[in-house]
Amino acid sequence: MSGNHANLVLAARALRALADGFVAVLLPAYLLALGYAQFEVGLLSTVALLGSATATLAVGRWGHRFALRRLLLSAAVLMVATGLGFATLSALWPLLVVAFFGPLNPSGGDVSVFLPLEHTVLAASGTADARTGLFARYSFLGSIFGALGALAAAVPDWLADRADWPMIDALRAMFVAYAFVGAVVWAIYLRVPERPAGESTARPSLGPSRGIVLKLAALFSVDAFAGGLVINALLALWLFERFGMSLTAAGAFFFWTGSLSAVSQLAAAPLARRIGLVNTMVFTHIPSSLCLIAAAFASSLEATLGLLLARSLLSQMDVPARSAYVMSVVTPAERPAAASFTAVPRSLASTVGPSLAGAMFAAGMMSAPLVACGLLKIAYDLALFAGFRKVAPRT
User: Residue 184's CB: how many other CB atoms inside 10 A?
Assistant: First the structure.
């Protein structure tokens, strides 16, 4: 694939992140406005992540039978249908069905079916030396446009105050906007080649790198389970419930967290060249987890937000390094399978956390998910460092 095709993927990633940015903040507010409680917010987030994991698993198992562009276009169509479904439905069970089958992303990262598909395009678009930088751009655009999307979470407040819209209608309008973004993403994917030159129609499989990939997948699952306890939708709910933050204030906060994450990801490539990919993942991740644990015990809103902002400056620096490391420790022929084998367990593991966190919130244990997330992520980092600090990239 050419660099132009990589640019198409980067553009689509930016637009999807924009939509995900406001949906993650507005989803708990929308469900609360419909009369649901904290547990239902966690349940719907779990179902959405479980649906994404199932779709990613299906792509990994049977996706080789279809052209890459066809899979990308199908995912974009589901994005449109998801936005329209949430804009028109109110009952819990229909919303759960839409959340399961659609690519709704209540988290701060990207755990949707788009991820392994777009990673495959990117891995074929750059040399080994340029790959970390390309993944860094991918993650940077996701973070910065996700931050801009979070600012758009203030639109319902504006429509309610200035245009005298009922709040529930203003919230539904944002899901229509989500559907519109999906339609634009669909149009972008039309320009991706039907089947890239050199792409095999055989079922992708792992060969000499199987052991490494499976170990990485297991470790990434621990990290994903921990992250599922504090996805953006639940962190927004925590701020709403503990400090009474408004949608406008929450949107501004998530704008800054996303912006700091984006800035940190720009530093990932040069830092990885200097200290290595594994060291970049571990030595930036542990301090961010300590900040999260401290935020759980902070008594004031200002101290809490300060610690969470410090966490955001470090917590996502491992994302491009992790993606580049997985693509680098396998042979080129194994890359599509490696992307799927590491993405699927992450997606599955992340589905458990939101419901568990929602149950903790409902039981009055408001700080428990943050503490558990931080401790599990530190354990993951230590295990990753112990097991892979001496495993050098192949290419």
Answer: 18
Write out pLDDT tens, residues 119-139: 777 776 655 556 667 777 887
The domain spans of the chain are: 3-195+209-388
Q: What CATH number should be reported for the domain whose range is 3-195+209-388?
A: 1.20.1250.20
* pLDDT of amino acid 127: 56
